[in-house]
Amino acid sequence: MFTGIVEELGKVKRIQRGSKSIVLVIEAAKVLEDVKLGDSIATNGVCLTVTSFTEKEFTVDVMPETMRHSSLGDLKVGSEVNLERALRLGDRLGGHLVSGHIDGLGTIKSKKREDNATVITIEAPKNILKYIIHKGSIAIDGVSLTVANLDESSFAISLIPHTSQVTLLGQKEIGAKVNLEVDMIGKYVERMLGSKEDKGNKKSDIDLDLLKDNGFLLA
């Protein structure tokens, strides 16, 4: 589990490509301070397991399922990546609860400056957009952000200068792919609402109208 607060930018040193998978060797510093074999490190928002490490780099395997649903396959030697170690009990939760399990890819549609902020609009598939709410949380390439605007095909987020400087999002160009992970609470709610009571149990009083009336969903 992660918070979506990026700790540092790493750099891809080597890539070993399989037919549907890759092995990444990533240069880093801060995330290696207390690393152990088997630790989880979010890499552009994807939870990956450390299989070996030195004082200056660590190695992770990226399996075919992860390749299909994330942008890690587009990485090249020299590419920078957002890195975050797994959350420890007792840590401050500065972002929101992020699993590191990517729901799919978005595409940067536009970028514009608004005073000290950079507003980025991202196109996303409908199966992802249905979980996004105005002022809700979303992880983009592993960065915890607040949804500033939303329509039927895209959503927008606003970056403060600090986030632009310490993560890759400020560097991304129009047309770039980004890893998206929606707030998991929405998926659990959908699952519970969609389950059918077929064993004589009392049907839940929670429905979509109740959630909308209480501000959990957009009308």
From TrEMBL:
GO terms for molecular function: riboflavin synthase activity. It holds the Pfam family Lum_binding. The keyword Isomerase does not apply. SUPFAM superfamilies: Riboflavin synthase domain-like (SSF63380). Its EC number is 2.5.1.9. It catalyses: 2 6,7-dimethyl-8-(1-D-ribityl)lumazine + H(+) = 5-amino-6-(D-ribitylamino)uracil + riboflavin. This is Riboflavin synthase. It comes from Orenia metallireducens. The lineage of its organism: Bacteria, Bacillati, Bacillota, Clostridia, Halanaerobiales.
